[in-house]
Amino acid sequence: MSNSEFRIERDSMGDRQIPSNAYYGIQTLRATENFAISGIKALPTYVDACVIIKKATATVNGELDCIPQDVSQAIVQAADEILGGKFRDQFIVDVYQAGAGTSHHMNVNEVLANRALEILGEEKGNYKRVSPNDHVNYGQSTNDVIPTAIRIGGLLALERTLYPALDNAIAALSEKATEFKDIVKSGRTHLQDAVPVRLGDTFAAWEQILREHKNRINTAQSDLMVLGLGGSAAGTGLNTHPQYRVNVIKILSRLINSPLKEAPHLMAAMQSMAPFVNVSGALRNLAQDLVKISHDLRLMDSGPKTGFKEIQLPPVQPGSSIMPGKYNPVMAEMTSMVCFQVIGYDTTISYAAQAGQLELNVMMPLIAYDLIHSIEILGNTIQALTSRCIKGITALEERCLAYAEASLALVTALNPHIGYLNAAAIAKESMETGKSLRQIVLQKNLMNEQELTEVLNLQQMSEILRE
Questions:
Q1: Helix, strand, coil: what percent of the chain each, to 5?
Q2: Residues known to be catalytic
Q3: 21-138 adopts what CATH topology?
């Protein structure tokens, strides 16, 4: 029943008016009324994950004659349209919603059902022909679909966003390591002068750090490939065809180009959020090192007159509303802020993961948003930092060398020749008198000039020992 502006839909709680042009239905409407909380809606990647699952399940249920073939084909077509970018404004449920994600899940089911009805020449809301529950959701439950969607969404976000960004950053750091390989600078430990190092090795170290983080995340990602789809409401597989689970995972593997497999125990896959905690922990670990790298970049660029100023980060925007000519390390600053958010998300995920009871974790909507958002903002941040900062870094070679030559930590190289206590005394005298290390050593006849020149060779001292 409908008029030009509204149609009437009915659920177990009664009738409601739905805007005639809406593809969502009555359960989505009720959710928007109940959960007007944040204005934050489902992430596009998470919507993609849910719709991909529905495409796979409709295909299999059609092949197994669990739903009519024409209905199966219409649902698949509707899913493809959404994946192609249509009807994205119809996913309107707040992130903070019914536990386990029933509200968002029904939003997806209703949009697919109503678009499938249009494809079949029916009016939206005529759920006898295509039902959100009986057809789109055949053999499924929120309880197995949502944990599967978090897994699929995480895999999509990693492949689309984070891994390409990490690869670009690793390549850019490698280029800078080569470009700066002969530039000697003062090392610093405890923010105090330390023995000389190569600027190129600083960038090579960051490159290696990111490589190792990518490997850790990739290892954690394997947990996301084990699916409990087919467990239905409580992990028993109630109301599913015997061949459904195997077939749908095969199709999902093809749709996202990933080697997915069945969970060995469907109830375990439904109840435990450990895979998401594992991936989130790997993301937090990456975020913590990115904070360190971004802070290093800021320190090394500090100045220009009163800081280190060993490197120049590319200016990308004016840095002050009052101080003319000021430029700030804004890309590094932004990186730290995003990383702090990711670390906070990881804490939230860990709390949400332990908050399930008995056969279900009801905090999954929060886990879904925080995990996928963490992946995507980290990926976007690393990409921006690479393209707008790292690739444009230049070295102030003379400044680097001046600091290296002036460092009292050069006395460390004298230890094997004059002993630790003598070297410490020389460093102290240099600090008090302003005399150079070279002057004091020669005055005390502890070494001759040729020996001293060989020992205090900055290029040799800063070269990393390799097998």
A1: 60, 10, 30
A2: 320
A3: Fumarase C; Chain B, domain 1 (1.10.275)
